[in-house]
Each structure stands twice: as structure tokens, then as C-alpha cells.
Fold:
Amino acid sequence: MAETSFPLATLAEVRRELAARLRTIPHARRTGLIALILLTLGAAANVAVPLQLGGIVDLVVGDAQQNWVVVSLGLLGAAVIAAVCSAAGFYLLSRVSERVISDLREQMVGTALGLPAHRVEDAGSGDLVSRSTDDVAELSSAVTETLPFLSRASFTTVATAIALVGLQWQFLIIPAVMAPLYFWFARSYLKRAPGRYAAERAAMADRARRVLEAIHARATIRAFRREDATHDRTHEASARVVEHGLSARCTMIALQVKLTFGDLLMMVMGLGIGFWTVARGDLTVGAVTAAMLMLIRLRGPVMQLMRVLDSVQSGYASLARIVGVIVDPPTPTPDSGVTDRRTGEVILRDVSFSYGDAWAVRDVDLRIAPGETVAMVGASGAGKTTVAALVAGLRVPDSGEVLVDGAPVTSLSDKERVARLALVSQEVHVFSGTLRDDLTLARPTARDEELIDALERVYAGDWFRELPDGLDTEVGARGLRLPPVQAQQLALARMLLLDPAVVILDEATAEAGSSGAGELEAAAEEVMKNRSALVVAHRLDSAERADRVVVMDAGRITESGTHEELLAHGGEYATMFSAWERGRE
Structure:
């Protein structure tokens, strides 16, 4: 099954999602309208500043009828109104935009948590991590940094064009010529930039995936001396980020060159029209000075408007990636109608599953009777973990069916699946919070006595009694870091509280090589008691205690029977167990 990234949202999907988020924010429409009014007043007052400066010029040359006090007060008032209205408008606009970003982040994380595990794995965890971290940060930065500039530039440009035409109709020539020119500049930029920024974001996601793989598999990488190869792959991914980033920035540089030419053309036209109108006596020197000051001041907003297209495009690329996760949320699976009686019977019937062109599991038939413990052994890559994922419903078979209590596991609702199935792997997570919070994830209504009893049953009582605050002890990344064996015991205690009919232990006792070997094995035995269990056995002593042992090779079941039967048979399992015994000695 090829890795497939999450999709990019279309413009229509982005607009619909933003509109939906705005509807959830109280008074968002009214706040936006007030912000629009304030920004308009601020832009108008900002344009009035050069007009007052032009009045000062007329006072100096003796062409003005007003006095110094009126002009000075007008200049000061325009500056204050511009500053206050603009700041208030930006504040209100930022409040709404940041709330939208916050809602999008929460919606994306919520959607991602509800996605089937196989969908996340197919896309690659790096893609999802990049969207929830890099893209959210990029979008937030783009809004924070560009929204004030974008608003100021837009309102100031429109207000200045109106004021210029109000001074003298000939100045209409400037916006009439420059508007199409700037539109062409922007269109040329937008034709190339989105694809280049999207490629940059995708390269960043690939880099995140490779870095995560290197961190999570560091022990394996060191064991096989693959440090250099891993470093080279990460370097190649980072180089692609630089390459695509440079391509995107070159697009912006080309835009800057065009803008410089546009500035020159605008100044030349302004000076020419100003000279002509003064020579004809249509405008005073002060009025032309005000017009040129407005053109000079217009140069800044236009430049800002074009420059922020760089950040806007990067922000939009991130927004499209975020919405791409949200627009296709998982549809909750309705109750299948399976009987409430939980027998714990598991049947795999002619099940096959492939990753791309390679078959991981092929034509597997297996039945786990209620209360039976089946150990699955085999070499690395034999398909054991894939079978465990298929039974847990984390993977969907390409052919065949996986039945739990007579119903296809993929048809079970979340409620039905949780009541019947639970998986503990070698990699367990201790959530940040109190130990009580960590345990009640499995059963929110559990009393403290039940939590302590679960810990005692998985042989965690010794270290639990030494905790300074008992169940109130902070654990996880922000508290007490539990060693691997204790973290695994905590996961097994959660399994007891959850009380499923079928437990799947995917090398869950692999840490048994440590000093807590006996306790961890005994804890796993306690969890499997009176339940159906599928054990992916890393240690063959787990297989020795199972009711039945299944041997896998190249995705197929090659042997099946009790430990004693397979040893007597003298086949692959007997060879493996003999090697295991010699290794222990």
C-alpha cells in the first residue's frame, strides 16, 4: 500500500471552512464590520496627513488662506486619528483571525484523532505532524505579520487613489496606468508562487517524517551501523527544503524587480502631471507637493501589499494543508448490531494484506477460541505485527475477513470495538498529568480503590507505594518519567480497567530482558486471564506458556499447535526454540 499524503483543500473548500469557523465565533460579523469602519477611518486620516503638509508648503510660499494653528492642528489630528483607528481596527481583526486559527487547529487535531490508524500510517506520521506544527505555526505567523500590513496597504491605496483624483482629475492617469500594471505583476507572481510554496511545505513534511523515523529507530540504526545512510537521507530531505525554498524566494525577487520599475514609472508620471498642472495654474505648489507626498507614501503600501504576497502564499499553502485534513472527517461507524454478549471469538478467514506490491499477509486462516491464548512467532518481517493490526481493526484486509464475535471487525462501532478489543504494543505512552488521569483514560468512572487494585494486579504496587503523592503524582513528560517496565505495567493496568474480551499483546513484554522481567511477564499473564489473547511473541518463553503456538513465515502460517506438539514435530518452531534455549544458556 503506497504512502498517500493527506490532500490539499481547494479554494472553495478553504472558503467554506473559514465561513463555518466564523459562524461559530460570537459576534464575529459585528466585530469584523467595526474593524472595517475603523480601518477605513484610519486610512482616510492617514491620507489627510500629506494634504496638511501640502497646506504648510502653501503657507510658506504664501498661497494659503489658512493660518499656522489651523494647519498644525489638522496635521496633528489626522495623525492621531490615523494611529488610533488603525490600531483599534487591527486589534479587532486580529482577535477574530486568531480565534479562527485556534478553531482550525482544534478541528484538525480532533479530526486526526478520529481518523483510522491505517489512514494516518498510509499518509505518514510526518505529514500529519508537519501540518499540526509547521503549518499551524506558518499560518499563525502569516496572519500575525501580514494582516496589519495587508489591511493598511489595501485601505491606504484605495484612499490615496480617491484623494489624488479629488485634487485634480488628471491624476486619474496614474491609477489607470498603474493598476493594470500591478495586477499583471501580481498575476505573474501568483501563477508560479503557489506551486512552489506547496512544494516547499511538502518537502518540509518529508523532512519531518525522516527526522521522526531517525529518532524513533535510533537503536536499530545504531545496531546496524546505518548512521551515515540515515544522515544522508535526512540531508537529502533538508536539501530539498532549501531547494524549494530558494525557488519560492526567487519568485519574490523577480516581483521586487518589477515593483521597482513600477515605482519609477509612478514617480515620473506624478512629477510630469504635477509640473503641467502648476504651469497651467490648476494647482498650487503645495497641492502638487501633497500629491507627490501621497504618491511617495503610496509606494510603501503598494510595496507592502506585493511583498506580503510572499507570506500570504506561504500562509495559504499551510491553510490548504490544514483544511485538507478537516474537509474529509471520518464518518462515525454506526453500531453493527452485534450481540451484547462478548465471547471473545476471533476468526481470520482467508485474509491477505499488502504494502504496495509486497504481500505482508497471504491467505491466513486462524481461529482464536473464547478464552484461548494464541502465541504468534516467526522471524522479523514474517507478518506477525500485521496480523495483530488486522485483528485490532487498525488495518483493513485487501481480501478475506476478520470476525470478532461473528461480526467483521471493520464494521464495529467505536463503542463495540472498545468493549471487545484492546492492543498493547512495545511502545506505550505515558500521558502528562496525574497517575489517576493516566489510568482513568481506560475507565473514567473508576474509583481510586479500583485504580490501585489494577496496579497491584500488574505488580506495580511496589513502585506505586513509593510515589510521593500516590495517584496524584504527576507523570509523563512534565512530571515523573516512568522507566520502560513501569510504563508497560501502567499500560497493562489500563487494559485491566478497560476489561476487553480480546487482548492483543504485540511484543508487549519485550522489556522483559530488564530487571523487571518476571513481574512484567506475570502482569501480562494476569491481563490475559479469562480472555481471548493474541500474543506476538518476542520471547519464546511467552509462546511456551500459550495454549497454542502459530508460526509465521513470509506472511503465511506454516505451523500451528501446542508447544509440546510443535517440539515433537521437529519443524521450524522446534529449530527456533532450540536456538532460543541455547541463547538463554
About this structure: The chain is about 65% helix and 10% strand.
